[in-house]
Amino acid sequence: MKNDKGQSIPRATAKRLSLYYRIFKRFNKENIEKASSKQIAEAIGIDSATVRRDFSYFGELGRRGFGYDVKKLMNFFADILNDNSITNVVLVGVGNMGRALINYRFHERNKMKIVLAFDVEDNELVGTTSADGIPILPMADLNEKVAEAKAQTAILSVPSVKAQEVADQLVEAGIKGILSFSPINLNVPKDVVVQYVDLTSELQTLLYFMRQEQ
């Protein structure tokens, strides 16, 4: 990710952008007009120096001694995260995780919406519609339906042995961003971005830190 000056934004900073956006939305809802770097840091659980360093990549977002304009920064991060327009997302893999994701109302929290779901034809849910009206379709329809939905983002929730094969099909269908719950590294073209969510690894990390505190 790069800023408007063409400078690369550190990955750690980029991963915090949605957290900043969430905090500024919360502050705005609480009618807080100005927030200091200390307030922002405490709300996220980091130090204020990190907040100031992160913000420095985007120019002058605030003034020393005056804090940060909450509404201005909320709108700023909304623009960066493209949350001013609806992002259509497709889901591949309607197993236990996939069903949970279908029922998670992304659009009530941000302007992201799962519009289509896909699975193999022997999944009994294929051919049905979720409670939110999301059609669950066979994999054979993926290329055609993704194009119709003008979706460029996908959530991948399939068994590891199928992940690369499905990722290849998503890339062929025009997908440019994949959120993968499969614990293997995917081989994709350079213009396709993959973000991994490994729940087992995250839980093991949590348990490790818990033991360190004992």
UniProtKB/TrEMBL annotation:
<feature type="binding site">
    <location>
        <begin position="93"/>
        <end position="98"/>
    </location>
    <ligand>
        <name>NAD(+)</name>
    </ligand>
</feature>
<feature type="domain" description="CoA-binding">
    <location>
        <begin position="82"/>
        <end position="185"/>
    </location>
</feature>
<dbReference type="InterPro" id="IPR003781">
    <property type="entry name" value="CoA-bd"/>
</dbReference>
<dbReference type="Pfam" id="PF02629">
    <property type="entry name" value="CoA_binding"/>
</dbReference>
<dbReference type="InterPro" id="IPR058203">
    <property type="entry name" value="Rex_bacilli-type"/>
</dbReference>
<dbReference type="InterPro" id="IPR022876">
    <property type="entry name" value="Tscrpt_rep_Rex"/>
</dbReference>
<dbReference type="InterPro" id="IPR009718">
    <property type="entry name" value="Rex_DNA-bd_C_dom"/>
</dbReference>
<keyword id="KW-0520">NAD</keyword>
<dbReference type="InterPro" id="IPR058133">
    <property type="entry name" value="Rex_streptococcus"/>
</dbReference>
<comment type="function">
    <text>Modulates transcription in response to changes in cellular NADH/NAD(+) redox state. Binds to the promoter of the aldehyde-alcohol dehydrogenase adhE gene. Functions as a redox-dependent repressor of adhE expression.</text>
</comment>
<dbReference type="InterPro" id="IPR036291">
    <property type="entry name" value="NAD(P)-bd_dom_sf"/>
</dbReference>
<keyword id="KW-0678">Repressor</keyword>
<protein>
    <recommendedName>
        <fullName>Redox-sensing transcriptional repressor Rex</fullName>
    </recommendedName>
</protein>
<comment type="similarity">
    <text>Belongs to the transcriptional regulatory Rex family.</text>
</comment>
<keyword id="KW-0963">Cytoplasm</keyword>
<keyword id="KW-0804">Transcription</keyword>
<dbReference type="InterPro" id="IPR036390">
    <property type="entry name" value="WH_DNA-bd_sf"/>
</dbReference>
<dbReference type="Pfam" id="PF06971">
    <property type="entry name" value="Put_DNA-bind_N"/>
</dbReference>
<dbReference type="InterPro" id="IPR036388">
    <property type="entry name" value="WH-like_DNA-bd_sf"/>
</dbReference>
<comment type="subunit">
    <text>Homodimer.</text>
</comment>
<keyword id="KW-0805">Transcription regulation</keyword>
<keyword id="KW-0238">DNA-binding</keyword>
<feature type="DNA-binding region" description="H-T-H motif">
    <location>
        <begin position="19"/>
        <end position="58"/>
    </location>
</feature>
